[in-house]
Structures are given as structure tokens and as C-alpha cells.
Amino acid sequence: MGETTSVQMQNIYFGLGNEPGVLKFAPTGLGWKTPETDRVVTASSEEFRKIQWLRVARNYQLRIQLKNGNVMKFDGFIKDDYDTLKDLIRANYKLNLEIKELSVKGWNWGKTEFQGSQLLFNVGNKTMFELPLNQVANTSLANKNEVGIEFMQPEQMDEDAQRKIKRQTTHELVEMRFFIPGTTLVKSGEDGET
Amino acid sequence: QQSNQRQAVFRKFESYKRDTALPKEAEQCNGQLNDLRLQIVVDLKNETIVLPIFGFAVPFHISTLKNATKTEEGEYVYLRLNFLTPGQATGKKEDMPFDDPNANFVRAVTYRSTDLYLSEIYKKILELKKAATKKEVERKEMAD
User: Fold this and answer.
1) Long-range contacts: A75-83, Cβ < 8 Å, 24+?
2) Lowest CB count within 10 Å: A41, A52, A99, B121, which one?
3) Chain B residues lying within 8 Å of A173, measured CB to CB
């Protein structure tokens, strides 16, 4: 305990990508690399502001908020990695690994909120899901209380991204529609420009 | 007797108490091509549909579901889930209760896939909805 160490973890995904890679923690920062395509992502520990742990579809996510406002997300950790990472992060980076709880109540009502480049859907004080705004292809107003958001599909992405996705039989989210009573929140949402 | 005074009261429901209770299918981590983690999971036991939304495993309790439709277009199967929200002019009486009618609601989501398993999921969702509706009717009869 307290000694800085290096640790390597396999089958970790970066962001929404679906190529697993190796994530290596060193006292000076971290590096992630895919074995096949040699894709590399690095960050210096001096940039780390806050590190969180949360449950996601691909098991658990380590979310690193950087001082410049950017966020790095790594998915694919197992539950038991928490203790290892907690100790490692404290020893190497002098930071606490915060647990971020999500809403798993199964409700379809909450509050939409914009935070940076994300649209959050919160239930109580917990987030239920996040929509990255750079994945939005189009928005529409069906009527004054209904907002539609269409998402980018593989054919709208570059060829490289398409190739990776085509390999898998994924269920792709095409569109989401929100019912927003009142008008103030609709205004703060996306305008129906096409 | 209060049997006729059954007011429309919102019945609380909850899919899971904690995120650790999410179904196993959503946490498989074997790097296989047929990746369940990016697919819709129907959790019959907890009466919940778990949707993949930008990396999150997002549960929707069957009580929130209004209906589901499936369409086929070219190589794709489209699955649309419509959820219950206020202001829906359905044939039903409008006094349907909501926990917070002023909240923001997820009204619909649409998924598509070339995976034929999406049709299976559609069937499972209909079965779950049917069972949940039946249970609710029985519950009301018992209360009378």
C-alpha cells in the first residue's frame, strides 16, 4: 500500500469503440492500445482531475475527468477490479476512486439536462443514461411537447468505423422521442432545424 | 366497503434496487462477436427490458411500456417501443395516474438490426407485457 505501481488490464474498451485493448497504468499516467490495429490513447496523470467508477453495459467503466474538461471512458472492467484500481489510483495519482451510482429503477420519467457535450436523463439525483450530442444526426419537434432525436448510423460514419461495427450483430439505437410538458425545457433543447 | 372508491393511484414499481442486480446477459465480457452487451435484454424475472443506450445498460420496467411494434425494411428489422406518458390520446380514460406528470418522459425508442434475434426479443417483450397486464388485472380483481 502507498507504493506506486504499474498495472495492465486486458479487454478494455475506449469510449464507445468496440475494439478491446490493453490499458496500462503507470505512475506517470495511462496508456491504452489495441493489439490488432495499434490504436493508442494516452493521458498524463497531471491532467487527471477526478476518477469515477460506474456500472455500464460492458460491465464497469472507469471514467477519468481531465483538467481541460475532457472525459476519458474505459469500459470492460469487472466488479473485482474495483479494489485493485482504488488502491492503484490512490497510490499513483493521489485521487479517490468515486463510485457513481446510476438509476436502475426502470422508470421512463425524469429530468433532461445538458452537461457539456452530453444530454443527461436523470431520475432523482442519479443519471439513467447519457446521450452524446456528437452522435445526434437530426432532431425534430413532432408537436410542442415532443422532441425527437435521431442518431448517427454506421452508414453515416467513416468507413473505418463502419467496418468495425458491421462485424457485430448489434442493436442500433435509431431514434428516441421525449415528451416534455410545458415549453421552457423544449426551448433549451435542440431546435427542430433540419 | 371501499371497493367502488378505487381511485386511480399511481403504483410504484422498481426494476432493480442496485446496479449489481442488472441481468448477467448485460455483463458478459468475453469479447465474442455476438455481443450481448450491445443488445436488448428482456429480463422476465424482474419484468424489465434492458436497453443498450450509448454504452449504458438502461432498464425500463414493463409497466412503463405502452406497446411495441416491429417492422422490416430491407435487411433491417426495426423495433419501436412506445412508453406511457401523459397527454397520449389513447382510447383509455385520461385519469391514468403518473408519479410526476411534469417530469420529462422517454416516449419512444427505435432500434434496428440485421440480427434476426431482434424478432425474438420482440416476441419476448409482447409475452412479458401480456403477463404483466394479466397480473395487474388479477391484482385489481383481488382488491375488489
Assistant:
1) A75/A12, A75/A13, A75/B55, A76/A11, A76/A12, A76/A13, A76/A20, A76/B29, A77/A9, A77/A12, A77/A53, A78/B29, A79/B20, A81/A9, A82/A53
2) A99
3) 51-54, 109-111
